[in-house]
Amino acid sequence: MQYYSLNRQAPSVDFRAATLAGQAPDGGLYFPETIPRFSPQLLQSLRTLPKAELALQVMQPYVGTTIPAAELARICAETVDFSFPVVSVTEQIAALELFHGPTLAFKDVGARFMSRCLGYFSRQQTRAVTVLVATSGDTGGAVANGFLGVEGVEVVILYPAGKVSPVQEQQLTALGQNITALEVQGNFDDCQQLVKQAFTDAAVTSHLTLTSANSINVARWLPQQLYYLYASQQWPHPEPPVVAVPSGNFGNLCAGLLAYASGLPVSHFIAACNANDAVARYLRTGDFAARPAVATLSNAMDVGNPSNFGRILELFAQNHATISGLISGGTVTDAETSATIRRVHQQTGYLLDPHGAVAFHTLEAYLHTRPGQHGLFLETAHPVKFPEVVEPLIGQAIAVPPALHELMRQPKRSIALEPRYEALREYLLTR
Ligand SMILES: *Cc1c(COP(=O)(O)O)cnc(C)c1O
Q1: Which of 167, 171, 341, 355 best tests ligand 1's pocket when mutated (most atoms within 8 Å of CB)?
Q2: pTM listed for this prediction
Q3: What is the set of domains in the chain, with CATH numbers?
Q4: Which regions in the chain score pLDDT beneath 70?
Q5: Region of residue 147 (left: phi > 0; alpha: psi -120 to 50; beta: else)
Q6: Counting runs of H as helices and runs of E as strands, what totals does the chain give?
Q7: Which of 301, 305, 312, 382 is the pocket-test mutation for ligand 1 (most atoms within 8 Å of CB)?
């Protein structure tokens, strides 16, 4: 499989090169040259295929010959080594829970797959790969955890001091091993700026093999289609589901669309957005306009200019009629998000996180006028990651899952960094 740049000003590359580079040299996103079809045998045996085997079959054509089959089988097995249950919430609606991984959010699968691929590719390099990443909270935890203990890969994470939640800070700083956390005395934009500058500094890039591990990397994007196959394996109704996806950068939804384009039956998709709804507007009107991001309760979706939107357009040859026939957009206010968390908890006992609540709300509205249909929404994070939003709404504390107890007890280890590029440069050049 070759990948071309959506800007079409860079050569096509294989999976290895696309993963190592992240973004094409012309600034474009990489996109697969062909969309593989799932074989009839795969679709027929879906219910009985073990998760890891299914992952291997789905990822194999994308990876091609860049990773030997036995190695890829091991990577797939480690990546999906936890559960993805479909849980019934109402008569019409089920949750696909994607928070059973080590950092309790869906980004674990992409981060684990990419980190292991990079680990494999770095064995062919003469020196370690250094992943340099800025985080506002959640992504950093998934990346750090994904790379923990992966040989040949060093991770340096910049995060804004005092601006991440206690659970998030532990996930960044308490791991040790090959993970270093730089605690920047500034905000997220400072962190992002410092990282960007390092990638353009020839002294740094010749001293270290830098890679970005950001969310547009094909090795993070592509394995997310597995969620939709795992949902199908468990789906109890004869007609395929309506699927609502809480969306920010649109990697997750776009991966679902890829699975659909490969032959997975899905009735309809809903792009569930908070106030940052440029794509929902496009679906309604045919016009796309990026806007500055606004802060909401579902903050992992606060993206004004979603990077994966270009991939959605490419997948359907820019055809607005096709795209808007398959995907509906929904815009949900913070007041609706809060009311949904409270009401669903009261009526069903199910506790939504703010991101899942946005998706639940759009799905409920869609199914309201379609009484015979059934749908599922992607519950992308555990509510315990957002206690300041959820606990006041339900009037009780959320129990910390056992998986976090151990981590919360570990000592925090971070290196303070002034928000000046010279400080980061000096740190990197002396590593
Ligand atoms: C990242 C994230 C999203 C948005 O996913 P995209 O693939 O960027 O659209 C939704 N919910 C949670 C909890 C997230 O961390």
Answers
A1: 355
A2: 0.92
A3: 83-105+221-394 (3.40.50.1100)
A4: none
A5: alpha
A6: 20, 14
A7: 301
